[in-house]
């Protein structure tokens, strides 16, 4: 069992060595009065803890360049910056998620660059500036499976080495897995996270053939 660490104030919690904020935290309550994420980017989703757990087992090389797709509040981005000293860019189509991400980055004393863009707008060059691309709970509509499959092609053409996407197990995500496996070296693994509580889901890791 790990050492019990007292949190500095109410509504802060820890998972995989990073600090996160609950909705009741005063900073989150204040930000929610000013910004309204509108594409499900209104909280830290459970799949982000699957991503952290998976990366603890299958780490990224220190100081790699990393892009988090559909970052929302950026738990994956903050984790990669904190644990691997990665140079991280968080991408989301909804600019209203970034103030929440900025607060989480500051709380964890890391820098994360942000970029407002849709998956379909990211070029081969922009994607290929990163060794690794990660995402958690970003394939929840059929159209997103199409967008992400096309993005994989551009990313691998640009030189990306690994794409890792975690998911609770939604049908569009499985469709993406099936289609990715026909073109790339794709591995789908059932996974569970134990922090901040037990969460089960799936991890897709895709590499070029
Ligand atoms: C379910 S949330 C997950 C957020 C975060 N990854 C997490 O695990 O906490 C999905 C995020 O993807 C973003 N998103 C959805 N479709 C997108 C697209 N086509 N391009 C870029 N971002 C997108 C949403 O704005 C939202 O922040």
Structural write-up:
- This protein is α/β, with parallel strands linked by helices.
- The chain has a single domain (about 10-205), classed as Vaccinia Virus protein VP39 (Rossmann fold), CATH 3.40.50.
- The chain has helices at about 25-35, 45-55, 75-85, 100-105, 125-130, 140-160, 170-185, and strands at about 10-15, 20, 65-70, 85-90, 115, 130-135, 160-165, 185-195, 200-205.
- It has a 7-stranded mixed beta sheet, sandwiched between helices. Strands 1-2 form a two-stranded antiparallel sheet.
- The model has no long low-confidence stretch (mean pLDDT about 95).
- S-adenosylmethionine (SAM) binds near residues 72, 92, 119 and 147.
Give a brief outline of the structure.
By secondary structure, the chain is of the alpha/beta class.
Radius of gyration, in Å, reads 16 Å
The number of helices is 7
The number of distinct β-strands equals 9
Query: What is the string of helix and strand elements?
Result: EEHHEHEHEHEHEHEE
Helix content: 25-40%
Q: What is the chains' assembly state?
A: single chain
* Mean pLDDT reading: 95
- Spatial ordering of strands, largest sheet: 5-4-3-6-7-9-8
CATH-scheme architecture: 3-Layer(aba) Sandwich
Bound ligands = S-adenosylmethionine
Task: Give the C-level CATH assignment.
Answer: Alpha Beta
Structural class per helix/strand content? alpha/beta
Biggest beta sheet attributes = 7 strands, mixed
Described by the principal axes of the CA atoms, the overall outline is: globular
Give the DSSP E fraction (strand runs of 2 or more residues).
Answer: 15-25%
Termini separation: 40 Å
CATH fold title:
Rossmann fold
| Unreliable residue stretches | none
